[in-house]
């Protein structure tokens, strides 16, 4: 850049023009109301996260009761981890607000070389502190999100296995119930048939017993009359085998005992199925789908808060750091060479700093009043 006549007449103007773009960048900051809007969004996300982590405890406690697991203990750890992130961010916001206030206190006009050196040292220390502020590190949010994802998968695996077991607890007795019922019906049908057969046989015997005795003619009586060579007529041998001791009157008492045993087993099996069905209904009332949806929402808010927190506070921190570094650079040039050019540059830098002090005061207030206090 070639100096014009006016620039040669005012040597400080040359320096100001050369650093015009840098200075504009250093002092271009977001307005306080923009910071306020982002802080409000951050607080809303944080409050929703805190409430969601608290609300799901009841469902997870019920899952532990039904599945005999310890998921609630893990969930408490997630809540504690998120509380630490909130506390860290709140403490960092307080430190940043205090750093802004301290930065504003260093803007008093001075020409004393010793005071200039002291200001340079204090601003340099301030910039180092800015780098150490932790506004909920991305790694902390990422770790929480990863663990929530693993938790969701773990609880899904356990609940799938539990549902399968509960369904099997119903299906196995059901199949056994069908088998026992079939056996019972077969025995009952057999018993009915045998009793009916016994009744018919008794009726036939009675009919034979009460029927008229047939008459015999002379020839038949002569044949039946005993002779010297013939013995008494033989009574025909009974052709039917004697009735088994366990069967009386067509009733098989072993089968009757088996029927009673089957009925007892069926009643016990039905009771077992009722218990299994009740357990499955209890499982269905756990609102597992709602829990899964809630965890997905929590994970999304964790990521959302992480990004917005880094964006919001990093921008404030970086803007303050750039402005402070720019001011320190001007002071160092002035301390090394108190020429008219450097003095004019220092005054211009001082003016820029003073012109932004009002915004910085509002930002410090927003950090304290609208964020830090709400995070407690």
Structural description of this entry:
The chain has 376 residues and is mainly alpha-helical. It has a domain at 13-157 and 288-372. The chain has helices spanning 5-9, 11-18, 20-27, 32-55, 57-67, 71-105, 113-132, 138-210, 218-224, 253-284, 288-336, 340-372, and strands spanning 247-248, 251-252. Strands 1-2 form a two-stranded antiparallel ribbon. A hairpin with a 2-residue loop joins strand 1 (247-248) and strand 2 (251-252). Helix 2 packs across helix 12. The longest helix has 73 residues, at 138-210. The chain is rod-shaped. It starts with a helix and ends with a helix.
Q: What is the succession of H and E elements?
A: HHHHHHHHHEEHHH
Mean pLDDT: 78
Helix content: over 70%
Which outline best applies? rod-shaped
* Radius of gyration computed on alpha carbons: 50 Å
* Residue fraction in strands: under 5%
The biggest beta sheet, please?
2 strands, antiparallel
Structural class call reads: mainly alpha
Which strand order spans the largest sheet, edge to edge or round the barrel? 1-2
List segments where confidence is low: pLDDT < 50 over at least 5 consecutive residues: 1-28, 230-243
Q: How many H/I helical runs?
A: 12
């Amino acid at each position: 850049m070639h100096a014009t006549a006016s620039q040669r007449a005012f040597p400080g103007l040359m320096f100001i023009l050369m650093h015009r773009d840098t200075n504009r960048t250093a002092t271009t900051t977001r307005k306080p109301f923009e910071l306020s809007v982002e802080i409000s969004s951050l607080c809303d996300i944080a409050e929703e996260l805190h409430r969601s982590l608290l609300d799901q405890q009841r469902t997870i406690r019920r899952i532990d009761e039904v599945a005999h697991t310890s998921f609630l203990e893990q969930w408490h750890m997630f809540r504690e981890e998120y509380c630490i992130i909130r506390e860290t961010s709140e403490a960092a916001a307080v430190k940043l607000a205090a750093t802004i206030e301290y930065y504003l206190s260093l803007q008093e006009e001075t020409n004393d070389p010793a005071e200039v050196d002291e200001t340079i040292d204090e601003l340099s220390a301030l910039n180092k502190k800015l780098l150490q502020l932790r506004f909920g590190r991305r790694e902390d949010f990422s770790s929480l999100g990863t663990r929530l994802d693993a938790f969701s998968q773990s609880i899904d695996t356990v609940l799938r296995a539990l549902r399968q077991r509960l369904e099997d607890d119903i299906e196995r007795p059901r199949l056994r119930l069908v088998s026992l019922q079939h056996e019972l019906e077969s025995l009952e049908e057999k018993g009915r048939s045998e009793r009916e057969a016994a009744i018919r046989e008794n009726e036939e015997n009675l009919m034979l017993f009460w029927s008229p005795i047939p008459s015999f003619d002379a020839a038949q009586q002569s044949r039946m009359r005993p002779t010297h060579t013939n013995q008494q007529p033989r009574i025909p041998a009974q052709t039917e085998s004697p009735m088994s001791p366990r069967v009386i009157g067509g009733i098989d008492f072993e089968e009757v005992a088996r029927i009673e045993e089957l009925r007892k087993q069926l009643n016990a099996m039905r009771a077992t199925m009722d218990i299994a069905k009740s357990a499955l209904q209890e499982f269905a009332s756990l609102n597992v789908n709602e829990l899964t949806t809630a965890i997905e929402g929590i994970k999304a808010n964790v990521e959302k808060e992480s990004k917005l927190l880094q964006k919001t506070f990093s921008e404030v921190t970086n803007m303050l750091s750039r402005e402070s570094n720019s001011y320190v650079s001007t002071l160092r040039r002035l301390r090394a060479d108190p020429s008219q050019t450097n003095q004019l540059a220092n005054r211009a830098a001082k003016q820029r700093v003073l012109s932004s002090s009002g915004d910085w005061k509002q930002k410090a207030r927003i950090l304290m009043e609208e964020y830090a206090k709400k995070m407690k």
